[in-house]
Design goal:
The structure is a homodimer.
Chain A lengths: L21 E4 L1 H5 L9 H13 L4 E2 L2 E2 L12 H8 L8 E2 L3 H9 L4 E7 L2 H8 L3 H17 L3 E7 L3 E2 L3 E2 L2 H13 L4 E6 L6 H13 L7 E5 L6 H10 L4 E4 L6 E2 L2 E5 L4 H10 L8 H15 L6 H7 L4
Parallel strand pairs in A: 1-2, 1-11, 3-4, 4-5, 5-6, 6-9, 9-10, 10-11
Antiparallel strand pairs in A: 7-8, 12-13
Protein name (chains A, B): Hydroxymethylglutaryl-CoA lyase
InterPro entries (chains A, B): Aldolase_TIM (IPR013785), HMGL (IPR043594), PYR_CT (IPR000891)
Pfam family, one (chains A, B): HMGL-like
Chain lengths: ~325, ~325
Amino acid sequence: MSAPESGLPMVVPAPGLPARVRIHEVGPRDGLQNEKGQVPTEVKAEFIRRLADAGLTTVEATSFVHPKWVPQLADAEQLFPLVSALPVALPVLVPNDRGLDRALSLGATRIAVFASATESFAKANLNRTVDEALAMFEPVVARAKAEGVHVRGYLSMCFGDPWEGPVPVHQVVRVCKALMDMGCDELSLGDTIGVATPGHVAELLTALDADRVPATALGVHFHDTYGQALANTLAALQHGVTTVDASAGGLGGCPYAKSATGNLATEDLVWMLHGLGIDTGVDLGRLTATSVWMAGHLGRPSPSRTVRALSHQEQ
Amino acid sequence: MSAPESGLPMVVPAPGLPARVRIHEVGPRDGLQNEKGQVPTEVKAEFIRRLADAGLTTVEATSFVHPKWVPQLADAEQLFPLVSALPVALPVLVPNDRGLDRALSLGATRIAVFASATESFAKANLNRTVDEALAMFEPVVARAKAEGVHVRGYLSMCFGDPWEGPVPVHQVVRVCKALMDMGCDELSLGDTIGVATPGHVAELLTALDADRVPATALGVHFHDTYGQALANTLAALQHGVTTVDASAGGLGGCPYAKSATGNLATEDLVWMLHGLGIDTGVDLGRLTATSVWMAGHLGRPSPSRTVRALSHQEQ
């Protein structure tokens, strides 16, 4: 059985939630960087064009990390000019000064840096301590800000860490404040291994607010590893967050399960937000069609439940 | 990457939520009734035993509908005696007087009737109007109550209906009150097509409470068709609900998507509840092992994200 007639959710607002949410679409970067095969540059460009056409206003386009680390996004220099004229925000990931040079030379006006709340992941991902990573980002952020570039600070492992277990809230707050102090315009709190539950989300947001990092400066980035991403998002909205990261079609695989998802699927998020009467600007039908089209290119079905339901696909 | 060490969620309670939730496990009935193939009676019995052993206190065991309508559960007479001595509540579905006779003759002490909030689904499922169906249940409930049997009233299509679209709240309230008035001990509000969002859940629970159907008499039965089940559950908990229906491993297929789920997976629910510090009595590891074992019998992977993550299965 399908949704009532239109394939759109019924609208019943709930008190205390924001009127509008900005979706930070991470599919082309965070989703595709985990793909085993190489996606052709023109397909990536078309993906970003379709996402913009579906009404997404922020589409993280690619990454200027060294191609050795993320070969899937080694075509950043070729891709970015193909989409840079689109009337949407196109942040790009930048790990260091060299990456910033590459991004600036192509006219990028929004960058993101990628920090960690835990020593273990800072070591694994950046081969640095948390503070060494922050020190590496500091001049990058300063130069970006001097060039008028908008800076997002990603923070990984904000809830649990596969090596360290539960991550103390004060530890997350400390790195958030350091990122804000160095000039980041916004932060994205990542539940990189998907273990958070709604009370934990509420606790972290409350602690950040008490330490002068308001929800208005924060995005949330939940993974659906244990199916918790949308419930956690609801808790974040109830605590004033208005920016939510998501990946079209749930792109971004788990390392251990072929059809399992890492990222919250944008379509599942949009279904909830529109049902709550929260404006996103997104056309759910067009977005779903885009994810079905992309799933065809990748040769496997989307893990998004909304995509599966609306596309009536046998998967 | 996996959960921190133990494979259990970290515990961070949230204010205003119940200390304990009763999970009404529907896998053996609602899950298996949608299976194409016949599951051997002994496998069903072992499934129920394992669920009880995992700490579930209410396991809906089978259905005494006419075998013509649900051939998958035609072995109810053989199955029930195999499990009836288990120290858990074992409600059985009963559609009419004949079904009640069969259930009582086997010593069932808990039954459930299955009503609809919409005319279209009452017609499709029971070939009756809503009021004709209620009239059919009335003597069944009366006789069950006279025999000291606990009665649950299921109500389908409480939010949206595939033929009628959005279902007005007052229409749902009317049928709920009729079921309570005829003597049901508890109701289960079904989002049969999975279209609800959290504001809609809150609206219905608020309307029911205002009309003297308190949340303490209610269970919620969400489907994950659009990925909304857990967020809707959180909204229900925030409005005082303490009984949640779920299906081990997410058993209970969608008619249009092989690996898509209908029912909220018990494991995904338990992850959230335990993360919130809410007691369920369930051992998540044992429950997950049970769903993996059952998935082996059914020859396809569980759609539960928590089962997939904890079992590290390539699916």
